[in-house]
């Protein structure tokens, strides 16, 4: 086990950025850039993950002479020419700043829910000799699109679950563990698993992505951010052989006689397994477990989710009986639940819950799990995340900088040095000039190699919790579905 | 400077896997699992990336006492119970194997191009006391889906460009330069960018994702670099000059790198005006001069519908610089000026752009491409339906076939028994149930009991991947394929 692949901060960047130091106008002393979500699937974003990037890559003395030498050699080969790599600029940073980066980053506090098309963080160089540095770290800083987008996608699902639990359950107690992260294997790398898994835990507490727990300990001061339960998988069931599936599930119940366990039940025939195995052959063991305060979560894992879930509930309801809660919806006994971990996304979770409701079942009967859809099926365009230069100082004069391509007005960028205001519950992005700096929600988080803010997961969760001013998520789903049909 | 967030082997598995050693039948002494693509978007896969996973996480004495202690504390807290963590099992690996993993992994050689629904690698426990190890590492081994899927995704881009190059261009040497990886910022992490960036370099030589090179140097014996780039502008370097000064922005860029190749982004305000007035007007002389010195300028639109934008841009440049007709009857711009389209290029839009310019008489050699998220991030484990399943086990001395066959989804049926990968009448096929001929098995033992037995070089990977997949017709794929 060794460190990361990249041990050189100069390589954390799109190659072409090495050529930019010679392209800005002569006399440029400051380049000021900002980051936003230009719109996208969801109308707001949960800001999260910048602190990891700052702590892991940019904090402290991060540039050394050895790195400069290594980067110089690599880039000479990479460009096939020696006049691109900015050896002088990097040497200056080592000699003048001891290898610390003369940058200032101001950001909205992590966990804040901000409507799209608002500035989320700004970056400016603090030493006029190295204006190119602002844009140099665009590549790395833009990767915050990922934890931000995962956290947002996860929170939208939390809103949906909240909606159905409010309507069909006595209380909201099941909410924090109602969507479990199964995405460790389906994500593109262990590092991404850690980041994405952590982003989900801003909203929920259930995870199998262990990497996320370690990540949150290391970068966000949380000792244990999530929980899991013993659970079977297909290999542990099918190894017993088709004729001994009952023994497989019995073994699971006996190996972990207390507490909650889950057992995947679709290896061969989910209906028979629910009816005959769980409903009859293992009924005694399940009842015994229930008397001890434990529970069994039965997991289908294939087929059309809305149909499969309701059919399983019906079979189990017939076998174990149901009660009706204060909202008039059926509940399985407290020791029995269904967990649906296949095919879950923000689009499908609502459909499943709606089908359950239509069939008289409380949302509290089912827990959900999501893998690829939670951690991998998102990209920078999901929330159209972009980092653009908006202001520069050239020959001592401040100029607003922007792009405005006629070929795509969606790509217009903001101008000037920006602030984020929150007035009467509404966020707006304004120019700093002419506005009271005290109203600016953006907070300096990094300056000249020093981390200025150190957020804990606890405060982030507090900021990100659901609240009455949230968008109407059912309305959002309706419009989203209509857009897809166009 | 950098230590990976995860530095404990035991924390590489999904939480629930810590509970599985108790879930197998008593008397289980061996577990044998395999990994395949069960189908998906592409009818074949380019196998790549397992060696990185083995070297980074699993080779050598990877388990330490400190890890066992830390993991015990973490797992007990995650489950809020202390009867899940398999302290005995992990200690056994420490004491009997010096912290090396008692596993045997066989895999198809990296770079191999083969049809889907074939076994790609198998994993088997070698110590009867700890058979659960096979499936414990499913999580991290399954992450091979990513480099494999990006390598295949990238390979298909190459098939498309090669197809149009064959039809409309005289210059086939350029194909491997014609798709740039611009995905660094759009990847979900630096590690992902490195893995995906490396996978793309199997097929192409153009890349701005610098991270791919250190990965290949460290894990695949690459000497030097495998990807190359050119001095290029971005919107910040152009727009910093101000709207009225755009020509000066391009002139300054051009003068700063007055030899060789440069790329200039042209759509900050009005891409067509920029091409007509700046590049075919005020800066025409400097472009011609660069050309005389053997250099080239790539002009980059970056917004709008790629199909229309590329064609219109070619027409403007054709008027400005003139064209020649090549041996295949298609128009080419002079060699020192090209279009570079790196916005919204998926397989589908690439096809649309190339087909459209062909229809209008332009050679594909006039346009170079780039892709970011479409290359490195818009893929997932379901793209190639990658899965890892136990197919055979030994329980109480008996060898048993293990498989799932859910009535609710026949696509999820898994293979049975011990598997071999063999040639059969010119096709590659997987033989199940131990019926194959081990002497003909294309799977090679790459890892055994902590030792890496095969150490592929990047050169070998590239050589294998340069072969075209048999029975694959790019036109058919494009017309019938499941396009996004």
From TrEMBL, chain A:
**Catalysed reactions, as listed in the record:** beta-nicotinamide D-ribonucleotide + diphosphate = 5-phospho-alpha-D-ribose 1-diphosphate + nicotinamide + H(+)
Residue ranges of domain Nicotinate/nicotinamide phosphoribosyltransferase in the record:
178-427
- Give the record's keywords alphabetically: Glycosyltransferase, Pyridine nucleotide biosynthesis, Transferase
Give the top-level enzyme category.
transferase
Which pathway does the UniProt entry assign to this protein?
Cofactor biosynthesis; NAD(+) biosynthesis; nicotinamide D-ribonucleotide from 5-phospho-alpha-D-ribose 1-diphosphate and nicotinamide: step 1/1
Query: What organism, scientifically named, is this protein from?
Result: Petrolisthes cinctipes (Flat porcelain crab)
Quick one: a GO biological-process term for this protein?
A: NAD+ biosynthetic process
> What's the protein here called?
Nicotinamide phosphoribosyltransferase
- SUPFAM superfamilies from the UniProt entry: Nicotinate/Quinolinate PRTase C-terminal domain-like
Answer yes or no on keyword Transferase: yes
What is the E.C. number?
2.4.2.12
Per UniProt, diphosphate binds at 185, 234, 299
Q: PANTHER family annotated for this entry?
A: NICOTINAMIDE PHOSPHORIBOSYLTRANSFERASE (PTHR43816:SF1)
What are the top taxonomic ranks of the organism? Eukaryota, Metazoa, Ecdysozoa, Arthropoda, Crustacea
Q: Where is the Nicotinamide phosphoribosyltransferase N-terminal domain?
A: 8-105
**Which GO terms label this protein's molecular function in UniProt?**
nicotinamide phosphoribosyltransferase activity
The family annotation for this protein states: Belongs to the NAPRTase family.
Residue positions annotated to bind beta-nicotinamide D-ribonucleotide are 208, 299-301, 341-342, 372, 380
UniProtKB/TrEMBL annotation, chain B:
Q: Name one GO biological process term.
A: NAD+ biosynthetic process
Superkingdom of the organism of origin: Eukaryota
User: Which molecular function GO terms apply here?
Assistant: nicotinamide phosphoribosyltransferase activity
The chain positions of domain Nicotinate/nicotinamide phosphoribosyltransferase read 180-449
The reaction(s) catalysed by this protein are: beta-nicotinamide D-ribonucleotide + diphosphate = 5-phospho-alpha-D-ribose 1-diphosphate + nicotinamide + H(+)
UniProt-listed Enzyme Commission number(s): 2.4.2.12
User: SUPFAM superfamilies per the record?
Assistant: Nicotinate/Quinolinate PRTase C-terminal domain-like
Query: Pathway involvement?
Result: Cofactor biosynthesis; NAD(+) biosynthesis; nicotinamide D-ribonucleotide from 5-phospho-alpha-D-ribose 1-diphosphate and nicotinamide: step 1/1
Nicotinamide phosphoribosyltransferase N-terminal domain residues = 8-105
Pfam families, alphabetized: NAMPT_N, NAPRTase
Q: Which UniProt keywords apply?
A: Glycosyltransferase, Pyridine nucleotide biosynthesis, Transferase
Family per similarity comment: Belongs to the NAPRTase family.
| PANTHER family xref list | NICOTINAMIDE PHOSPHORIBOSYLTRANSFERASE
Q: What is this protein called?
A: Nicotinamide phosphoribosyltransferase
Source organism (scientific name)? Petrolisthes cinctipes (Flat porcelain crab)
